[in-house]
Every structure is written in structure tokens, then in C-alpha cells.
Write a sequence for this structure.
């Protein structure tokens, strides 16, 4: 605590996380679930490449929801797009999105 103020955010009884971790969690949640919703409603599911790259980079760095923290990662080729690498890292199959 700094001067009587909490330095972390209680996250669903799982952990106390920093403000930056909380924002990253919300960012990932919105980005990945926007893809989920687009697939489910038969809309364009293309993510902004810079956002997908940023999310993938942050996700790979670990933390509360780092690799293995959400779902079993799916292997994709090294040449895969940033969107496909992000989706595969969080257990989505970019090649068979409904499966």
C-alpha cells in the first residue's frame, strides 16, 4: 500500500493484480471475445493486426493469464499471422473456428 491506498486489484478471489495487469486482462478479453462473437454471428472476424500483435506479445510474457492460463495452446506455423498466433495461444483454432 502507498499512503494507505491499495497497490493492487483483487481479481475474483484468484489473485491481487496490478492496474497494468488488470488493463491487459480487459484488453485481451475484449479482443479475443470480439473474434468469438464475429465467428458466432458470421461476421468478419479480422482483428486489427497491431492489436493482435500487441496482445500476443503481452500474453507470451506470462502473468495471470499467460501461456497455459486460459486454454490449451494450439500449434500454428511460425509464419502464421499475428491474429492466428494470438488465437492459437489462447486455445482458439483459427483454421476451424466453430470446432
Amino acid at each position: 500500500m502507498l499512503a494507505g491506498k491499495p497497490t493492487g486489484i483483487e481479481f475474483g478471489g484468484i489473485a491481487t493484480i496490478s492496474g497494468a495487469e488488470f488493463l491487459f486482462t480487459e484488453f485481451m478479453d475484449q479482443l479475443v471475445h470480439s473474434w468469438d462473437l464475429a465467428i458466432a454471428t458470421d461476421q468478419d472476424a479480422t482483428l486489427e493486426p497491431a492489436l493482435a500483435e500487441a496482445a500476443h506479445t503481452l500474453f507470451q510474457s506470462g502473468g495471470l493469464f499467460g501461456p497455459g492460463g486460459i486454454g490449451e495452446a494450439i500449434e500454428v506455423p511460425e509464419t502464421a499471422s499475428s491474429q492466428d498466433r494470438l488465437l492459437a495461444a489462447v486455445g482458439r483454432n483459427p483454421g476451424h473456428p466453430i470446432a
